[in-house]
Amino acid sequence: MAYILLGIVLLPLLGSIINGLLGKKLSKSNVATIASGSIGLSFVLSIIAFIQLQSAENRVINVDYYKWVVSGMLDVPMGFWLDSLSSLYILVITGVGFLIHVYSIGYMHEDDGFSRYFSYLNLFVFFMLMLVLGNSYVTMFVGWEGVGLCSYLLIGFWFKNHAYNDAAKKAFIMNRIGDLGFILGMALLFITYGSLNYADLNKPGAITYTSATTAIALLLFLGATGKSAQIPLYTWLPDAMAGPTPVSALIHAATMVTAGIYMVVRSNAIYSLSETASLVVGIVGGVTALWAAIIATLQFDIKKILAYSTVSQLGLMFLGLGANAYSSSVFHVITHAFFKALLFLGAGSVIHAMGGEQDIRKMGGLSKKIPTTYLTMLIATIAISGIPPFSGFFSKDEILAHVYEYNKGLWALGVIASMLTAFYMFRMLFLTFWGYFRGGSELYKHLHESPSVMTIPLMILAVLSVIGGLLGLPELIGAKNWIGHYLDNVILIKTYLGLSHSIEWMLMGIAVAGAVASIYFAYQLFVINGVLPVEDEAELKWWQKIIYHKFYVDELYDFIIRRPIDFLGKVVDRFFEKMVFNGINDSISSITLFLGEWIRKIHIGNIAYYIMAMTISIIVILSMIK
Amino acid sequence: MINGISIDYFILLSAVLFTIGAIGVMARRNSIIIFMCIELMLNAVNILLVAFSTLHQNAEGQVFVFFVMTVAAAEVSVGLAILTMIYRNIKSIDTNLLSNLKD
Amino acid sequence: MIGNILIFIPLIGFLALLSPTFRSNARRYALFFVGIEFLVALMAYALNYSDNNSILLKVDYTWINAINAHWHLHVTGVSLSLALLNAIVFLLIYLSVDASQYGEKAYLFYSLGLLMQMAMMGVFLTKDAFSFYIFWELSLIPIYLIGLLWGETGKEKITLKFFLYTFIGSLFMLAGFIYLYHHTALLNENGQKSWDILSFYQAGKLLTPAQQTVVFWFLFLGFAVKIPIFPFHSWQPDTYTNMPVQGTMMLSGLMLKMGLYGLLFWLMPVVPEAVESWRGLTILMAVSGVIYGSLAALVQTDFKRLLAYASMAHVGLISAGILSGTRQAYDGAAMQMFAHGIYVTGLFYVVHLFEKHTGTRNIYQLGGIRNLNGQFSNLFLIILLGSIALPLTHGFIGEFLILVGLAKYQLVWAAIAGLSVILGAVYMLRAYQKMMLGDVVKTNYSFGALEAKDKWGLFLVVFFILLLGIYPQALNYFTSLNISEILK
Questions:
Q1: Could you tell me if A612 lies within 8 Å of chain B, comparing CB atoms?
Q2: Euclidean distance between CA atoms C474 and A270, whole angstroms
Q3: Closest by alpha carbon to C309, among C322, C290, C282?
Q4: CATH code at position B81
Q5: Per the domain annotation, does B42 fall within a domain?
Q6: Which of A153, B11, C100, C340 is the most buried (most CB within 10 A)?
Q7: Are C247 and C347 in contact (CB under 8 A)?
């Protein structure tokens, strides 16, 4: 088993190293084979590991390879921890990762940095696997920062464009803010509970409530807000769309951004113990879900819409975590990985067809030209909108049911966010694929369906988006909630769904009715009435303008954080360094020079005078000796 | 008592010689004379050393006198060489003219 | 035994290179000497794996009888790691020198460098305060001359400032040592005084709190100037910027480690009570340096100067960790000293390559170098990531442990010092973006392939950064034993 886990993690790294070092000498097909093949093999090994895990004791496999960070009581090994939670994650990462790698072969085929791209992408998978497989918080942090690095490299993949570089830098730095919280959380966790290894922390009674528990939970959650793009650190994710679209699908939708959820579920004992922390997580999640959904309704860039949708869906997951519905959130992570990856890849296919154009105002009527993309995206859109029996419905419904039980106000936030989701997703779908084409006849002739290397992953993901719900069918309809039971041994402190069946039916009804109503509203607006988004920003109403400009949060951060820090830097450099410290140094030297100048006046240059002074001095000194 | 002469007289002689030397060094400007005065001071000390050496019946003081004389001789040779060089440069051995180091 | 060899190889090299026979081929001989030194250091490292090599690793005999000064070298623990660092960094420094860089007088540069290596080797290895001080001051002479001979414009004033600053600091340190030396007489019946580090540890504990305070501040001043800890840093940015880049490598890669090493081994265990009572203030100073350096680095236009401030921030963090006196922070500091030595040398190596290939190191005059030389930009990126403590680089282990240790003392200090995690990423990535990314802005420079020696130099840096990030136990195993001893 130790070797299988090692293989799962190291194969992508190997692929990355080979492509990174020799990529320029290899042909494109070789590069693609190495990159996709390593992930594919890793996926196969993950399936083997998953099967073997089922027969393992307590369904946990813990492997230590060597001592890594050792200092006094702190003893962190380099090792892997495969349990129900990480086994699901590795399947999603390598599975969806493999599909996206295959898709990328088509999408990036014309790019000069083909091998560099795959090297980064493989490296990302490596770090992501480290994140979920590491058997301590520190090894998790290796992946945590590592995926941040790969995200940085891939967002700024087209490094000639400084706007992209800025977006990459912004992502890295915002993540780093969260990472500081993560580091401090780890430090406090170690100080409070004496270890950072899951093996120690998962022992019964290892984690009890102390005064530091809430602080640990909140600090770790700060890390999660950075990585999973929650308020206040969400603004990097929409900008991160500067990267190639498959990257957005893999990193900024399916896997990396769900690391925060993984981390919270991993620390569920701590969050369950601290009511304050849970409430904060729930509120941040709920507010983010709504906030991002509102912004998404007025965006024109197809990828920006999906980015805000991701932020919103992640918010929903955190809402679930706040309600301590850990398995439901993981369930939503998985279904979301399917349909959001599909949406992004579909969007990539659209952009590919449109020759790089991302503005939905220039699209329309594409369903005839790219039918496969249209159909698969339609499935994903229905899935994300929460229409039964598509996968998104089940996972979202489960979260909302838990939240209803936990806090009615937060539940309302979640429901409104879901309704908005259905609205903006269908708005995007209608404007892109329905109606008539608005991009000019020149481009119209150019429109083409993507090659099969790109569409086959779409189809597979479409199937998964439809049937993904089978993982966690609600017990309400007489099914066994497989994922809920599967994750049972990871959730240390359990909260059971205690709602009556009638209320559950009612909640489901409200959710579906809300979604259908939103879709109908979107249909009325964009298909029947044929409302088109305005071309010119000036025509927007004032409240639309605020939403379109994302509530001016970027500007606000710029104003209250970046500028003051740069200003302080200037103060330090211009005032303290150049004036205060240089001034002190200079004044010390001038005082010394002045004293010297003054004292040298007694040296008149007459030898007799000196000797006289010497003699007198000697006499004085001698006379003082008793 | 050394050969019937009180030690006081030796001290007195030595003190007079030393004072003459010291005043000479301070008051005169001619380098040669200053040199001679320095010799005078050294020899004043020598007298004391010898006197006390005899008084205490201890040869160490007399040994020390040899050292002083040797050093004095060495000093004179080096000093006179320096003076010669100075004279060649400024055609004078007046110490008041030697104030270049002041600036 | 091996300690003697480590000290005498560079000493012989220093003398040999001064003689006319070796002058014409100075570069080759210099590389030979640092290469041998590196091999011997590796051998010392290998010898540490066995317990029964203490005869080889240790020398101790009376040096100056009158004051009971000993020649006492012990190649183990943190001393070992810093000796190894010394050997590696000098190998890098000499690799980085270009054939024509120091002109006719190249032999003098190599020779002075070897003297410097010898002096610092002595500082790291000796367990005797007297020789510690001698080596400490000896190391100042060659670096002063290097700055004076090959510095940039305004070097006279800046090197003088550097010299006076560190020299005055050292005098305080000497005073503290002498004070302690006199109190070692209390340790035994016959009043035998000693300069030995262990008797200092015992003597320090016998002092009253007021006496400890005096000793503490005297020693602290000496070390703080060298490191430098805010507000004693004002010599540092100017000197780092003004030195020839190899001199800067010596200063930042090695010389400031003398201060940190001193803080860790010659101050913390010596006067524990005074450390306890001044901990708050001194950590405040160190942490201020972290923030101050980071902020100043944000607005620099000269990449070398930026690195000077960045280095100040990094060593501020290490000092804060040491001053917190916790196990994790000590271990972290021991790790970080090595890690910082490697990556900062790598970064200044990069500065050197910028100057060599483009003739400028101004961030705003460079741009788009990624388009011209991908390999260089990748190597630079890895070194840079090592400097901002990305996991799986050596810097991370140290920084993480230091922050854990600081948090153990007080969480708020860890939080404030941890801001360097963010600010470090800001200034480093900003600079990287300006210099390496984007389109080629200026056509008046080209950045061709790296010379083989430069390539190997950078590979060596990257190798150590990654090796010790992935398997830190290779060093930590020895340093942590050493640290257990002083914490006893």
A1: yes
A2: 34
A3: C290
A4: 1.10.287.3510
A5: yes
A6: C340
A7: no
Residues A526-543: what's their mean pLDDT? 76
Residues A100, C432 contacting (CB under 8 angstroms)? no
Give me the pLDDT at residue A126, please: 94
Task: Establish whether chain A is in contact with chain B, requiring a minimum of 3 CB pairs below 8 angstroms.
Answer: yes
Residue of chain A with shortest Cα separation from B23 = A612
Q: Using the structure block, give the residue that is written with the tokens 């006198």.
A: B65
Both tokens of C60, joined, read 């101790």
Q: Which of C233, C403, C480 sits opposite A183 (nearest CB)?
A: C403
Name the residue facing A612 among B26, B98, B101 (closest C-beta). Answer: B26
Q: Is residue B91 in some structural domain? A: yes
H or E element at residue C320:
helix C303-324
The residue segments making up the domain with residue B34 are 7-95
The pTM for the full model equals 0.90
How many structural domains are present in chain B? 1
Give the structural domain span for C253: 2-487
Q: Which chains are within 8 Å of C by 3+ CB pairs? A: A
| Contact assessment for residue B51 and residue B2, using Cβ atoms and an 8 Å cutoff | yes
Q: Is residue B1 part of a domain?
A: no
pLDDT in tens, chain C (488 residues): 888 999 999 999 999 998 888 888 888 899 999 999 999 999 999 988 887 777 888 888 899 888 889 999 999 889 999 999 999 999 999 999 988 888 888 899 999 999 999 999 999 999 999 999 999 999 999 999 999 999 888 888 899 999 998 999 999 999 999 999 999 888 888 888 899 999 999 888 888 999 999 999 999 999 999 999 988 998 999 999 999 999 999 999 999 999 999 999 999 999 988 998 999 999 999 999 999 999 999 999 999 999 999 999 999 999 999 999 899 999 999 999 999 999 999 999 999 999 888 888 888 888 888 888 888 999 999 999 999 999 999 999 999 999 999 999 999 999 999 998 899 999 999 999 988 888 876 666 778 888 889 999 999 999 999 999 999 999 998 898 888 888 87
Please give the backbone phi and psi of residue C59, each rounded to the nearest 5 degrees, phi first. -130, 140
Distance CA A419, CA A522 (A): 11
* A619 inside 8 A of chain B by CB: no
| Chains C, B in contact, 3 or more Cβ pairs below 8 Å | no
Tell me phi and psi for residue A462, to 5 degrees. Answer: -65, -45
- The one-letter code for the residue type at C449 is A
The DSSP-derived string for A419-468 is HHHHHHHHHHHHHHHSS---S-HHHHHH--PPPHHHHHHHHHHHHHHHHG
**Cα of A435 vs its chain's centroid, Å:** 35
Contacts of A577 (CB under 8 A, 6+ apart): C234, C237, C296
What tokens were used for A316? 């929903």
Q: Which of C155, C123, C160 is closest to C138 using CA atoms? A: C123
For residue C480, what is the nearest residue in chain A, using CA coordinates?
Answer: A71
Q: Which chains touch A (3 or more CB pairs under 8 A)?
A: B, C
Q: Would the pLDDT of B101 be above 70?
A: no
Name the residue facing A608 among B26, B101, B102 (closest C-beta): B26
The beta strands (E) that lie in A72-108 are given as 74-83
> Given its phi and psi angles, is residue B92 left (phi above 0), alpha (psi -120 to 50 degrees) or beta?
beta
**What number is the ipTM of this complex?**
0.93
Distance CA A424, CA A290 (A): 12
Q: Where are the domains of chain A?
A: 281-548, 560-624
Residues shown for chain A:
626
The answer to whether the Cβ–Cβ distance between B101 and A612 falls below 8 Å is: no
Q: Choosing among A68, A71, A160, which should be mutated to test the C contact, i.e. which has the most C CBs within 10 A?
A: A71
- Cβ-Cβ contacts under 8 Å, A581 against chain C: 231, 233-234
Number of structural domains (chain C) is 1
Q: Which of C344, C307, C337, C338 is nearest to C321 (CA)?
A: C337
